[in-house]
Specification:
With 175 residues, this protein is mainly alpha-helical. The chain has 7 helices and no strands. The protein has one domain. The longest helix is centred in the C-terminal third of the chain and has 61 residues.
């Protein structure tokens, strides 16, 4: 990770120095970590190569841990994106009153332009349920990620307190 001097000394980042050097973007505590995971989980379902850009912008806007937000977007990859989008489509169809079933993609037509037109029409039929489903699924993942980190952080702290108490009790017992 770049340190403060690297960001401060970079002439391309000069207009963004005050924003990018904000301490809440780089320090880890329970709020910034939970927020960073939530931002990363939400932005991980953004289509295409804009996941990390969206996560970076959201991390800056919400002042949560930037590196954690960027790393968390990596839960989507070429192996997981198709099942996630199928789940999002099914979730979107639950919330939209549609009576049609899943339409398979068109087979290759006689020309590429004709097939691309059919493919765009097919994608248009998937559009609204998919958009609603992706938004709902991303929101669900963000909420689960946020509270999951908060609960895990709390469990870690309680265990650390117990271990510390046991150590102190053993240290005060005369031998």
């Amino acid at each position: 990770m770049p340190d403060h001097t690297a960001v401060h000394g970079n002439r391309w980042l000069a207009p963004f120095r005050n924003t990018l050097l904000h301490p809440r973007l780089w320090h880890i505590n329970r709020r910034s970590a939970a927020g960073g995971v939530a931002v990363g989980m939400f932005c991980g379902l953004i289509p295409g190569p804009f996941q990390m850009l969206g996560a970076a912008i959201c991390a800056v806007v919400f002042r949560v841990n930037l590196p954690l937000a960027l790393v968390t977007t990596l839960y989507t990859n070429p192996f997981t994106i198709v099942p996630l989008y199928l789940l999002a489509y099914a979730l979107g169809r639950l919330f939209i009153d549609t009576d049609n079933s899943f339409i398979p993609p068109p087979e290759y037509a006689s020309s590429l332009s004709e097939w691309l037109q059919q493919l765009l029409g097919w994608l248009g039929q998937l559009g609204l349920p998919l958009v609603i489903g992706v938004t709902l699924l991303a929101s669900l993942f963000a909420v689960l990620g946020y509270f999951g980190v908060r609960v895990a952080w709390r469990i870690f702290l309680v265990r650390a307190w117990r271990h510390r108490r046991v150590r102190r009790a053993k240290a005060t017992i005369p031998q």
